[in-house]
Amino acid sequence: MEALRNDDIRMIGVWGMGGVGKTTLANQVAKNAEEDKLFEKVVMALNISQIPNVTKIQEDIAGILGLKFEQEGELERAHRLRRSLNKHKTVLVILDDIWGELLLEKIGIPCGDAQRGCKVLLTSRSQGLLSRSMGTQINFHVQHLCEEEAWSLFKKTAGDSVEQLKSIAIKVLRECDGLPVAIVTVAKALKGESGEAVWNNALLELENSAPANIEDVDDKVYKCLQLSYDHLKSEEVKRLFLLCGMLGYGDISMDQLLKCGMGLDLFEHVSSLEQITNKLVTLVKILKDSSLLLDVENKHFFEWPGVFFGYNYENRFVRMHDVVGDVARAIAAEGPHRFVVIKEALGLEELQRKEEFRNCSRISLNCKNLHELPQRLVCPRLEFFVLNSDAESLGIPDPFFEGTELLKVLDLSNVCLTRLPSSLGFLSNLRTLRVYRCTFEDIAVIGELKKLQVLSFESCKIKRLPKEFMQLTDLRALDLWDCSDLEVIPQNVISSVSRLEHLCLVKSFTKWGAEGFGSGESNNACLSELNNLSYLKTLCIEITDPNLLSADLVFEKLTRYVISVDPEADCVLDTKGFLQLKYLSIIRCPGIQYIVDSIHSAFPILETLFISGLQNMDAVCCGPIPEGSFGKLRSLTVKYCMRLKSFISLPREQGRDRWVNRQMGSLDLTRDFIFTGTDVPTPFFNEQVC
């Protein structure tokens, strides 16, 4: 902390081996700096990882500063960040886990003569990188825990009962070599195990485990993490762990995990997408409880994330420690798995000639310097392919996928494309296709993918959905979030994908056709086509004309929806068709005065309500609340509803006060309705002036 107070020091480095606690230290430094008011602003970008993504770093910093990027390029984003940071007299910027030289100016971080009030703290595994490439003026070495500190952490994690097995536990602890990441994972793997035989067997596994020879990963750490993996209770959760390793360099989107997991049939004994979503959340919790996955810290969200997790911020992203990720990929490359992650594009043609590559079932191609692909991907057993590249444009040759007929998951969400290869039509077994921020004139080839279940074209520039989409009769989820150029969806395309459970058209198509006006391809789909989607559970759409919301629209199975209507339109939601709804978000609709009327029972099983930007809303209900309404509500978020001054609470459990008046002011708050045994009022809904 003294270095932070020293005006002559602008660049500070923290270094140490993987798993020693650099990220934890960086978080603590940020917390202390804010509490001691050493800087006007503290901003962080954590877990930058081996493949730095400048856009992500910029967005992380922008989120803390309250900036929102639209479609700016990298240089414009850097300019806006630099201008925002320079508004503060003193700023601390923390960049965690860098693996190579970062050009701070390219990101938008003031440096050189412009760095007057800006300090930068960097963490890395390499002292040389910090001092030579990044020009740090002082470096701090984070070392292994001493034996006393290690035992304290081990005991805290495994529980006090470990004292009864202290002699054998100490021997197990020594195999962790004082590294927090190893100590925590081993302690959690053995937590609750009271039999001495189990502990002795764990010690034997640690002592006899063969060295992994993973670059930058200590052999003892590998052994400890392998033990934790072996102690996972089911093959299902082990498969998810390996999938995270294939996807994870930095934060991992839960939306991506679900879509890829579906395509690989990872989730057992579930059928609907709602069940699959719940199963994923459950499996992720098991991995978090084992410290094999981590929560994402300091994440700032501005946009709708897709169709599966909505505004549930806790289930948006997870993180895998980079050491854990290295071990996951090492395990995945062994034995029957035959998964491979490629980080260098050099020699890709030659690599394809090797038998172990040709027999791979999963490939994650993460190449910063990838500018050209071979004509064909010769991997006849391939089921999973992820392509990541920071090239501004990358062409996929037309014959590229001709030899990969078994492919089930294709993720192109981190590569910039301008056309889809014709060989995509050969992928007769493809179940999941993800594309992000690409520009396409023609996507008709998608119609050949008859087994496709998940299709995601988030933030892509697409002008029309082709009529060939009518052939996607097994499609379960269609995500066209932020496809703002989409103007044409021909009639009968939506009604033809009758198996659809999740549909997202937020910030996308708005030109719905009027009922009863003509037919043919030149006319757009009508909202009434949604009635043919009898399996629909999640619906996210935008409507410019509220008159298109016909009373004939009935969604009996909806559990979550976001319907964005022209914000100036005066309307009250008709709740008769949403009796199965569990999650409701209403955002930026100043024309709304009430959410429901007092005639029909409203949202009887609704669990979560998010209201924001309803500046003219007087009350949630126009009149008395109908009996049976909002009986299952557990979470309410109300923001920026300035006319809404007071609430009356809903009925409480028997034996407790029935109504509680409550002043809310501007209502910029989040309230949890789950009963905890404390006397916390639960304000809600009737029109009432205090």
From TrEMBL:
GO terms for biological process: defense response to other organism. InterPro entries: AAA+_ATPase, Apaf_helical, LRR_dom_sf, LRR_R13L4/SHOC2-like, NB-ARC, P-loop_NTPase, Plant_NBS-LRR. It holds the Pfam family NB-ARC. The keyword Transferase does not apply. GO terms for molecular function: ADP binding; ATP binding. Transmembrane segments: none annotated. Keywords: ATP-binding, Nucleotide-binding, Plant defense, Repeat. PANTHER family: NB-ARC DOMAIN-CONTAINING PROTEIN-RELATED (PTHR33463), RPP4C3 (PTHR33463:SF198). Belongs to the disease resistance NB-LRR family. This is AAA+ ATPase domain-containing protein. It comes from Vitis vinifera. The lineage of its organism: Eukaryota, Viridiplantae, Streptophyta, Embryophyta, Tracheophyta.
